[in-house]
Amino acid sequence: MIRELAAYERESDAVIATEEALLRDGFGPRPLFEVTIAEWSDEPVGFALWFLAYSTWRAQPTLYLEDLFVRPFARGRGVGRALMQHLARVAVERGCGRFAWQVLDWNAPSIAFYESLGAKVLREWLTCRVEGPALAALATAGVADRAET
């Protein structure tokens, strides 16, 4: 389903996750994420991959939804709504002050769906990301200078 999500988001070539990495990072001694699988007639039809972040302003955890995906044939049956309601309950149970996620600006069906759930789309916030060589460069920037002092 991760590859199906990437195809839907027009990023099929971006998936480098392996089963081994997901098992290590989500099911090891210190899980970095949790995942909720939705089933329909005993078949997996969707998932929500999420983790807890922390709000400095609220001094409370935030349930952050990294990815939500429902297979096309299962859409319109309440699967996505059920996943979101489940995560809202988890957020409340864990004392979260927020339940947050991002949506691509071109994904009008998802934006409408999220707004129907009561979500406020924060259009004034922009995502910033550093990855790959730029991340490595940032991590090592000034290291030689600090070593000399």
Task: Write up what this structure looks like.
The chain is built from six helices and four strands. The protein is of the alpha+beta class. It has a single domain, classed as Gcn5-related N-acetyltransferase (GNAT) (Aminopeptidase, 3-Layer(aba) Sandwich), CATH 3.40.630. A four-stranded mixed β-sheet has the order 1-2-3-4, sandwiched between helices. Strand 3, helix 3 and strand 4 form a beta-alpha-beta unit.
Q: What's the gyration radius in Å?
A: 18 Å
Biggest sheet statistics: 4 strands, mixed
Q: In one word, what is the shape?
A: globular
Give a count of the beta strands, DSSP E runs of length 2 or more.
4
Class based on secondary structure composition and strand pairing: alpha+beta
CATH class: Alpha Beta
- Order of neighbouring strands in the sheet with most strands: 1-2-3-4
Low-confidence stretches: none
In what range is the share of β-strand residues? 15-25%
Distance between the termini: 50 Å
Query: What is the CATH architecture assignment?
Result: 3-Layer(aba) Sandwich
What is the assigned CATH homologous superfamily?
Gcn5-related N-acetyltransferase (GNAT)
Number of helices: 6
* Number of spatially distinct domains: 1
How much is the average pLDDT? 94
Give the helices and strands, then pairings.
Elements: H1 2-8, H2 19-27, E1 34-40, E2 43-55, E3 60-70, H3 79-93, E4 98-101, H4 108-116, H5 132-140, H6 143-148
